[in-house]
Design brief:
The structure is a single chain. This protein is of the alpha/beta class and about 375 residues long. The protein has two domains: about 170 residues, Alpha-Beta Complex (Spore Coat Polysaccharide Biosynthesis Protein SpsA, Chain A); about 170 residues, no CATH class. Helices cover about 45% and strands about 15% of the residues. The chain is built from 17 helices and eleven strands. A seven-stranded mixed sheet has the order 3-2-1-4-6-5-7, sandwiched between helices. The chain has a four-stranded parallel sheet with strand order 9-8-10-11. Strand 1, helix 1 and strand 2 form a beta-alpha-beta unit. The N and C termini lie far apart (about 55 Å).
Length: about 375
Amino acid sequence: MAEAPALIVFLGGLHGGDVESLLAEALAEAALDLLEEAAATGSFARYFLVTDGDALSDRLPEGVIVDRDREGGPFHFGRRLAGLIREHEIERPVYAGAGAAPLLRGSDLAGIARHLSAAASTVVSNNYFSADLVAFTPGEVIHEIDPPDSDNLLPRLLHDQAGLESQALPRSTATQFNIDSPADLAILKLAGGAGPRLSTWLADRDLDVAAYEALMSSIVDPAAEVILAGRVGSQVWSHLEKETACRLRVFSEERGMRAAGRDASGDARSLLAFHLREVGCERFFRELAELGDAACIDTRPLLAHLGVRPSRADRFWSDLGRADKVEEPLLRELTEAAAAAPIPVVLGGHSLIAGGLMLLTDAAWRAEDRRLQT
């Protein structure tokens, strides 16, 4: 009988200042939740933690194999994953980034394991075009593809280059919400639903959720209009059309930008960025307020179009609305103008206008139900 799937969790790569350390701490808690949820199901034969630190060294479930960074060059996602699969002869790998699935429970993970155990040649992912969780079999086909720099491209390469049948997990808040930025932690603190370790960690952190609460008020208001801008996928848009009471004004631009390398190449183009460049940040948000009552903006296509390459810390601080911490001049100005806009504006990355907005919608209706009951 073939061995049951193996869970492989990657945790690391977030060395830096305070805001990066904040995210690194949260991801360690999320990784621990994920490993403990999976271990409790008994659905996995082996468990691996690929890491560059010791944050969980004394807290891991029994039997987790820790694969630490080795000397000899910079980290490369695809080569590291392929090397692990080869070294441990893993036939059915289930890969997840530490922040990939903080809302998934053991039953969800067990379902993925059962599906993989019953398949002969398949790749399952939470997002075919930009994945954070990827399960596939046979594991050896990882050596037939061009090793990707990041996990985003993995399911497409396994399908296109190794010929695996591709299947997507059902689009839901649990499969689409992931932690990419500290702003995602603020959403999760407000909405709830994380595993026990991360929930305890969040309860002890003072994260500003006021902007998200203002956005939630518009989501459940039939008279309101909410602006969504950035890499808004059609399935997320469809979900929000059904689940929100407000009207939606959507500017969907540069889907798959990062996976296609359009941000790095300078080829990314955004209609909103053209306008921003012409009128400046203050007027941009003043005019945006004429189009809606609240706005949720994925800033990465704007920045890529404008040729702005802020540090990771600057992106994170901007997502949190902390213009005072942002060093890159244009991003600082953009963040200041968003905070001073006539309407609530929430900034972030792809996770904000995908799973983050779905999670906020769920939380908005729960808050509305409580309001109506009082």
